[in-house]
Every structure is written in structure tokens, then in C-alpha cells.
Amino acid sequence: MSGYTQQGPYPMTHHGGQSAAPYPAFQGGYGDPSQAPAPGFNVDYNQGPPPVMFQPGPMGAAPPYGGSPGPAPSMPGPAALIPVGIPPGLEYLTQIDQILIHQKVELLEAFLGFETNNQYEIKNSLGQKIYKAKEKNDCCTRNCCGSLRSFDMKIKDNADREVIRLIRPFRCVSCWCPCCLQEMEVQAPPGTTVGFVKQDWHPFLPRFSIQGPNKETLMKLEGPCFACNCCGDVNFELTGKDGDAPIGRISKQWSGLLKEVFTDTDNFGIQFPLDMDVKMKAVLLGACFLIDFMFFEKVGEANQRSSVFS
Asked: Are 227 and 252 in contact (CB under 8 A)?
């Protein structure tokens, strides 16, 4: 588009008012394979620009809350042609190399300990909401099966269209039961499987395979022996299927002492190569939710898990 001027990234602010360095400009490709992505994500979830109202889509898309059809406003980032074969609603993922996930605080759960359906906001690096996610299952499953519970999770765009569905069956999580480990199916759009996240058996490390629609392993994900974020982030490193140099990561971010102790609210960041297949970006989104439930979900008075032993 002629006359378009690339706008610089917005500066971020740490808690306390001190300015932080802005996010670097997006870089295409996998970069230097010997260098892992910069650790951590510095985002204030309570401040920032207003929510983005549209993901990129065809001209003439209808507004989400009525009104006459018209051109959809462009999203932040350079203009680009949308490749053929992108699942509907995931076009915006082709333009970004990181995602931020913020779990919403549930007051009933925080004060009474009654487990409710988890809800999340999915944002870009500027803190703008691009998707929302909500767990779907019944009350008995949530409160009796705890963090091992089965669920369907619907991920919708800002036009309230379901673009991704995550399906998690009831499975064991301990290293003592290697025949029935965790698994999640990712569909985009709902009804079309694009990949799986499968826990790999290991005596003390949380390891996962990121698989394609035919359950062929494409990438590996590995976390620390003890997934406990005591005043710091917990990183799960993403590598190729041979386990070579890191190409991305999923990070559980430290949310502050009060939130970590008294609520079940979690913040995550996902980094991946800009040119990664958008379907695999959706599968990594599913991997992030699976990790959240496995290691950082607290139900009632039960403590959250911190390793594959428990």
C-alpha cells in the first residue's frame, strides 16, 4: 500500500513507572540457530492500547456488532498478502512472532475455592486483544477431576467466531503411568485437525512432541525438572524434532506474590519464528494451555503440580 509508514513499537512500562526498552522489530526467518530468543516478556496486562476489533480478513467483512459491511481496518504490522491454505480466522498469526496469554480472574473461584471454567485473553506484543478462550465442561468434572480434567476449549476472534478448538481427554500425568500420558488435539477450524500435543515419557523432565495432523512429530518442547515459578519465569524451550538449537519458547511469567498465592490467574508468553506454519502456531497455543493445566492449575485447597513425579 503506497504511502504506508511503519510505526515504531510502543514503549512498555514496568510496574513502578520505570520505562522499559520497546519490543524489537519483527524479524523474518529462524534467525541465528545458535541463539535462543530473549527470555521473558515485559507486558503490563492492565494497561495499553484499546482492544483490536478485527483480525485481518477479506475486504467487506461485517463488523462484529452490527452495521453495514465495509472494509476491515488493518491490523498493526506490515501489509502482506494472505497465503492460500490459512485456516479462516488465523490470518493475523502470519504477521506475528509472539503471543501473550492472560488468564482472567474469577471472583467466585478466588474467594470460595469453587472451580469455574477458565477464561483467557490472547494478546499481541502491544497488549491488544486478538482472541479469547474459554474452557467448556461440567461442574462435576472440574471439581472432581481437578487439573487432570477433560475439556473442550473454544478460541474465538474479536468478531466472536470460533477459529480454534482444543480437545483434551482425561489422561494421567505422572511418570509412573507412561501408557496414558497427556494429549491434546488442535482443530482449526473446528472439525479439521491440524495437529496434536503429546506428552513424552521421561522420569523427571516435562517433555512434549508437537505433531502434525497425522501425528508425525515436527518439534519438541522441554521444560525444567521443577516447573515452579518462585519469583521468576518458567521456560519451556521449543526445538526442532531432533532436539537441536532452540527456535522458540513458552514462558510461564511471574505475576506477583499476591496473585500467585491467592489466585489461580496465570500469564504466559509464546515465542516462535515469524515464518512458522500458522497451523503449528495454533498447535503451540494448545501446548501452552496444556502446560497451564498440568503444572500451574490449582483446584480448591490442592497445591499445583511442579514436576512429572507427583
From this structure: yes
